[in-house]
Write a sequence for this structure.
């Protein structure tokens, strides 16, 4: 009898788990935070824009979700099942009354050299001379609100694998109404010229460079031979010397125990360089996870430890290449501050 | 019968683990405007038995420094016993503690972002800590889910 109950219970649970995936729920869980509940965009591009949705095939959406865009914030959802993926795409597609477009799959053979010239003349100002796309992400900090989209990276392996030649051609010909992408047919480009640009863009396809896996520590730790009081003073001096402003010094336990009961041997120093902060938020509005800059001082057995996050390691979680350089710089600054403070 | 039950248990565990999709950076959007969303976030953090220690007003600092910005705050929270024990025993972890959620306005809506606590194991990878990090991960998932659904 007890097995019957167990069996029934498990059957109920299993039925829930293996039930047909709900595209709306999956979209809300995985996509809405960046693209908006209604697909109008935000940190991510606006998916419900008719000039986008009506001109990209389901295969493009599926591959984009599956592979993401390496280094361009959009993560790869490689863990989703095919059924979940199709359910999500069907939900996204439901925002349009038009059926998904179909493009022929044959390759376009244009003239790369001519395409390069034309690309430089017509496309590079938005997509970049190297086709790496517009800078920044998110409507909040990185661009004017009147611009609903950042120019995508056309050289990104995820984009080139997802978009067929004829989809790219259609986009160049017709543009994307509601975005800065104009129709280049209306701008006077011939079919042949557009084919040349498509061929040039396709020639940018290359496998992502294998980056050397660095085993970086997730935190930075230094030791000081000075007393906690003296170390705090040298930390403050080093922070100011590195062009940061000290914004707050507090006990580690502040806010968790009654005032005056905090462990006095654990101190946090918060500091900021607002210019750098403004730059970081323009690159990626999610960088609040690095904020504010801080060094924690902990005295244990007569030794003082200085600890901080390692921005270079943390930045790798964001899938945003633009952020990497800035975070490497931040790590160097943290290191120099802590080195100077512990000399 | 016993074999069938065992088999179903195995299938269930396998299916559940396939569906577990742990994100590195956890993110959620609320349809609420910033003040209401901030209030909802703070309420759910407290409902999850965490203490809110403070809110860093990033936007105020930026504005004072002459930069234009929308609402942007960082909310710090934790449990005193855990914070004390971890910072005593594993001082290197203190760099990431207390936990925080960044919250910012995006037009009329609000976005909240948190680092997945599973990454704290990059600092200290120990079985007993990983159990706590997993619990924190589930708590943050639940907090962000409440934040998303708040009205």
């Amino acid at each position: 009898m007890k097995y019957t109950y167990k069996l029934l219970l498990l059957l109920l649970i299993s039925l829930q788990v293996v039930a047909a995936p709900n595209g709306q729920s999956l979209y809300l869980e995985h996509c809405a935070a960046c693209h908006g509940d209604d697909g109008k965009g935000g940190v991510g591009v606006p998916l419900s824009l008719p000039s986008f949705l009506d001109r990209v095939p389901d295969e493009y959406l599926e591959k984009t979700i599956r592979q993401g865009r390496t280094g361009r914030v959009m993560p790869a959802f490689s863990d989703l099942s095919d059924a979940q993926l199709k359910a999500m795409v069907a939900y996204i597609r439901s925002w349009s009354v038009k059926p998904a477009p179909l493009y022929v799959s044959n390759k376009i053979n244009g003239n790369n050299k001519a395409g390069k010239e034309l690309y430089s003349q017509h496309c590079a100002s938005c997509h970049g001379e190297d086709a790496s796309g517009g800078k920044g992400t998110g409507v909040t900090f990185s661009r004017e609100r009147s611009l609903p989209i950042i120019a995508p990276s056309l050289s990104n392996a995820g984009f080139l694998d997802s978009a067929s030649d004829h989809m790219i051609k259609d986009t160049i010909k017709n543009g994307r109404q509601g975005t800065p992408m104009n129709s280049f047919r209306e701008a006077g480009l011939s079919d042949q010229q557009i084919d040349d640009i498509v061929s040039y863009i396709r020639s940018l396809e290359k496998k992502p460079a294998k980056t050397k896996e660095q085993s970086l520590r997730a935190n930075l730790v230094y030791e000081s031979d000075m007393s906690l009081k003296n170390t705090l003073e040298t930390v403050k001096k080093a922070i100011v010397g590195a062009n940061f402003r000290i914004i707050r010094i507090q006990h580690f336990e502040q806010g968790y125990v009654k005032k005056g009961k905090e462990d006095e041997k654990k101190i946090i120093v918060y500091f900021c360089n607002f210019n750098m902060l403004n730059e970081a938020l323009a690159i990626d509005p999610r960088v609040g996870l690095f904020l504010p800059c801080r060094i924690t001082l902990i005295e244990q057995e007569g030794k003082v430890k200085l600890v901080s996050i390692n921005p270079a390691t943390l930045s790798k979680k964001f899938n945003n290449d633009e952020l990497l350089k800035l975070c490497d710089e931040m790590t160097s600054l943290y290191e120099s501050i802590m080195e100077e403070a512990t000399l | 019968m016993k074999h069938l039950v065992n088999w179903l248990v195995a299938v269930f565990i396998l299916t559940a683990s396939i569906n577990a999709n742990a994100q590195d950076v956890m993110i959620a959007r609320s349809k609420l405007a910033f003040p209401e969303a901030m209030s909802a976030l703070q309420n759910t953090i407290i409902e999850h038995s965490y203490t809110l220690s403070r809110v860093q007003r990033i936007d105020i600092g930026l504005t004072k420094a002459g930069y234009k910005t929308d609402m942007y705050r960082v909310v710090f929270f934790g449990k005193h016993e855990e914070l004390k024990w971890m910072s005593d025993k594993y001082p290197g972890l203190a760099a990431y503690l207390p936990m925080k959620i960044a919250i910012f306005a995006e037009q009329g809506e609000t976005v909240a972002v948190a680092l997945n606590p599973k990454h704290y194991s990059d600092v200290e990878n120990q079985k007993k800590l990983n159990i706590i990090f997993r619990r924190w991960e589930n708590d943050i998932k639940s907090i962000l889910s409440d934040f998303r659904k708040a009205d």
